[in-house]
Write a structure and sequence with these properties.
The protein has about 80 residues and is mostly helical. It has one domain. It is about 55% helix and about 0% strand. The chain has 5 helices and no strands. α4 packs across α5. The longest helix has 13 residues. It starts with a helix and ends in an 8-residue tail after the last helix.
Length: about 80
């Protein structure tokens, strides 16, 4: 299978309930949403560092859910 063919099989958003990180992404807006996106996908923050930052702000997410969501292996994607 060619890499181009694999693009057709990439995970897509599910219609069911999101994981705790997906729910938080949907809840946040503006600078907070931008900050979470940067932590998750742009700045190379570790799972632990993201978990601690979210916990300090009162957000409840599963520690392992962070990496599952980043790799699109959680319930948010199919």
């Amino acid at each position: 299978m060619a890499l181009a063919d694999m693009l057709e099989q990439s995970p897509r958003r599910r219609t069911g309930p999101p994981c705790s990180v997906g729910a938080l992404e949907e809840q946040l807006a503006g600078p907070e949403a931008d900050a979470l996106h940067a932590m998750m996908y742009e700045l190379g923050w570790s799972q632990e560092r993201i978990f601690q930052a979210l916990k300090a702000e009162g957000h409840v997410v599963g520690k392992q859910t962070i990496n599952r969501h980043r790799s699109r292996a959680c319930g948010c994607f199919q």
